[in-house]
Write a structure and sequence with these properties.
The chain is α+β, with helices and mostly antiparallel strands. Among the domains are: 22-114, no CATH class; 124-198, K homology (KH) domain (GMP Synthetase, Chain A, domain 3); 222-264, no CATH class; 273-320, no CATH class. The protein is built from ten helices and twelve strands. The protein has a five-stranded mixed barrel with strand order 1-2-5-3-4. A four-stranded antiparallel beta sheet has the order 9-10-11-12, with helices on one face. Strands 6-7-8 form a three-stranded mixed beta sheet, with helices on both faces. A hairpin with a 2-residue loop joins β9 and β10. The longest helix is centred in the last third of the chain and has 17 residues, at 364-380. The radius of gyration is 40 Å and the shape is extended.
Length: 385
């Protein structure tokens, strides 16, 4: 389906002004109001995204004509930083409310659209990130710190570096900061992240074939427990339930509310259905379709019978009154269909019919000899006078 907008998108589908493309579309928010002329006049707030999972909100005090994808120089703690505009207009206020900014003082200014010399310093700083990460890991190992530095991000002007690290417990990295400051001659900021955030920064593809949610749109991570797997009757296999971060998959929480709501219509697992044939124990359930399978054995799959949730409730109400149905199946037990013997569908002697023997052709020289003998016998016969 193709949408038509008068925004110069040249037939590329959705409005090009409202979409983010390239590397900075990782935390993409589609601005469906981007092609409305009055949208940017509503507020001067602008959303700017930096490397990977970091975003910030700034005031466009100079009234710059900004659009999605513009590289801008923004105010930082010391100096300036370079980021990409990802959202403008009315939707920025909603994003700020979602980000839970405590005060308006946290919102800084946009200086200018990035100049060529700004971009040169920015690219030079980015080129140092990988080498800095490798050296910082060696330094942390020499200091005997139980931590892993997963990523390094330089500020746009190259005067500050953020070190993202993972650690199971608290780490005293005061000595590490002194060594890193002497080694790289920049301001140092240490930021602890979790395994899910590290996977989002690295990126990759999940078993579903799509790019990781933590690397595309997820910013806030909710804890995932094994209860989500139990409500959805998933196999408690760590290899299947764990994602690339070695934690339980975040997508297990997507549909758990629907499963909980649908599961309330089913009988509890510990309820035993009684019939004249015997007792039936819970074996498995298809929550969304409302079908429950019962077994005559508490631990094994024996004589499995699948009934609807309504039928299970009906039998349970009868059991509470002291009544037992003939069978738990609706409409009584049906005679099992006997297997069809294909051999009885036709005469077994149909392959025993005698076939007519074909006469063998005699060799040509034998036929010629017989013909000559017959002609010689006719010549010897006496002729009638």
């Amino acid at each position: 389906m193709e949408y038509s907008y008068k925004c110069g998108c040249r037939g590329r589908g959705l409005c090009a002004k409202g979409s983010n493309t390239g590397h900075y579309g990782q935390l993409n928010t589609f601005n469906y109001l981007a092609d409305i002329p009055e949208n940017q006049e509503v507020t001067d707030l602008v959303e700017v995204q930096f490397k990977n999972t970091r975003k910030g909100y700034f005031h466009n005090v100079n009234n710059l004509p900004l659009q999605n994808g513009d590289l801008v120089a923004v105010e930082a703690t010391a100096g300036h930083d370079i980021g990409t505009v990802t959202l403008t207009g009315k939707l920025v206020a909603l994003q700020i409310r979602k980000a839970n900014l405590k005060s308006s003082e946290e919102i800084r200014r946009i200086y200018r659209i990035a100049r060529p010399n700004d971009l040169e310093r920015y690219e030079a700083a980015k080129a140092r990130e990988h080498e800095t990460m490798i050296k910082s890991r060696q330094i942390a190992k020499e200091l005997g710190l139980e931590m892993k530095i997963g990523d390094v991000e330089y500020q746009g002007d190259g005067n500050k570096a953020i070190f993202y690290y993972i650690a199971d417990g608290r780490v005293d990295f005061r000595q590490l900061i002194k060594v890193l400051a002497e080694e790289f001659r920049v301001r140092i900021e240490m930021k602890q992240i979790g395994a899910r955030q590290e996977a989002g920064r690295i990126g990759g593809f999940g078993p579903c074939g799509r790019e990781l949610c933590c690397a595309t749109w997820m910013k806030n991570f909710v804890s995932v427990g094994t209860g989500s797997a139990r409500f959805q009757y998933l196999s408690l296999n760590p290899q299947k339930l764990a994602g690339q971060c070695a934690k339980l998959k975040c997508c297990m929480n997507y549909e758990v509310d629907q499963y909980i709501e649908a599961g309330q219509k089913l009988l509890q697992k510990d309820i035993i259905l009684q019939s004249q044939e015997g007792d039936y124990y819970f074996f498995k359930a298809d929550v969304l379709s409302g079908m429950i399978t019962y077994s005559t054995d508490k631990r094994l799959a024996a004589n499995l019978v699948t009934v609807t949730a309504e039928r299970a409730h009906e039998i349970w109400e009868m059991n509470k009154k002291g009544e037992k149905p003939e069978t738990i199946e609706a409409g009584g037990r049906k005679e099992p269909e006997r297997p069809v013997d294909l051999a009885t569908q036709d005469d077994l002697n149909r392959f025993d019919k005698k076939k007519k023997k074909k006469k063998k052709k005699k060799p040509q020289h034998q036929n010629n000899a017989e013909n000559n003998a017959q002609h010689a016998a006719k010549d010897k016969e006496p002729k009638n006078a």
